Amino acid sequence: MSRSIHKLVVRPSAQQAENLRRSRRDRASEIAQDYVEAIVDLTAESGEARVTDLARRLGVTHVTVNRTLARLRRAGYVNSKPYRAIFLTNAGQKLAEESKKRHETVVAFLRSLDVSEKVAELDAEGIEHHVSPETLAAFERRLKRR
Amino acid sequence: MSRSIHKLVVRPSAQQAENLRRSRRDRASEIAQDYVEAIVDLTAESGEARVTDLARRLGVTHVTVNRTLARLRRAGYVNSKPYRAIFLTNAGQKLAEESKKRHETVVAFLRSLDVSEKVAELDAEGIEHHVSPETLAAFERRLKRR
DNA sequence: CTAAAAATGTAGCTTTGGTTACAAATTAAA
DNA sequence: TTTAATTTGTAACCAAAGCTACATTTTTAG
Asked: Among A114, A146, A127, A124, which Cα is nearest to B142's?
């Protein structure tokens, strides 16, 4: 194919390449979502979100949290100062709300298929970042219909 | 000045931390799955899978393909020699079959929820790597029931 | 108040997956 | 068969996300 007819078959490949490229691009924001969600939860639970709390919750070292927070600060999702608690910007709060809602929908949907609670949580963690608005709407439709 | 206390590494990981850590670990094999699937497809379509074909299909440069193939060779999924076509090992074929089946199930399932074909393909690309056997079984159950 | 403990920050290394630029090998064409 | 085009390989770079080791700051206990 490479040497003869590749131009004739370019369409399907192009589509899939685009799909995969999107997959990869999306990944950049997945971690951001995990972080803002965790920040919201921790703030609700204990009044403030600290680096160490985040590290424990996210299963990484405080060093990783630190560096990632720097990126999120640059991206405008969080406000934080050295040795102080971490706060979300408006953009960060919006992202967190959307993420949380999506997460809950995915979990509820999986539960509605009789997936066990533990596995539903587990799978949702990975799946939620790849659910488009259209698919999310389909999930919600299904949930309402029972 | 240096206190240099050798702290023992404590791992009191919460459930969610474990979930996220799994997410990350899983990611390592996602690319492998994309590659072996693409190799199967290309071989079926045109008799052999070449570096350039893979690059086009996966939406990356041939350099990336090259380096990733080296890793897959090390991992025992592919056999390849310089300037020659790429073949799957038995392990690679097994992985490809499983991946393909999972992909098809996810797409069919989304389609059964009236998600459009294009979006179903798009979302499946990201979702399929995070679907546990239990959830996959739930999808299949649902598909049979209609 | 002081000293130890805990939290946070910084330096520097690793791996992975991406890139461009250029070199070498193979294939196709004149 | 010699040359041009295409494919493949290599070198050298980048950024993200992970780590350990160590330094600094803040908090807490005595």
From this structure: A114
Per-residue pLDDT at B18 exceeds 80: no
Report the C-alpha gap between B27 and B40 in whole angstroms: 21
Residue of chain B nearest A133, judged by CA positions: B119
The answer to whether residue B4 scores a pLDDT higher than 60 is no
Which of A26, A37, A52, A115 would you mutate first to test chain B, the one with the most B CBs within 10 A? A115
Closest residue, chain A, to B37 (C-alpha): A16
The pLDDT assigned to A29 comes to 82
User: CA A44, C1' D21: Å apart?
Assistant: 34
N-terminal to C-terminal alpha carbon distance within chain B = 72
B28 touches strand C (CB under 7 A): yes
Q: How far is B58 from chain A (nearest CA, A)?
A: 5
Tens digits of per-residue pLDDT, A18-64?
A: 655 555 556 668 889 999 999 999 999 999 999 999 999 998 999 99
Residue B125 half-sphere exposure, CB side, CA atoms within 13 Å? Answer: 24
Which range is least confidently modeled, A22-26, B94-98, B106-110?
A: A22-26
List the A83 CA – C4 C1' distance (angstroms).
19
- Strand C-proximal residues of A, range 28-57, CB below 7 A, are 50-53
Question: What distance in Å separates the CA atoms of residue B16 and residue A45, rounded to the nearest whole number?
Answer: 15
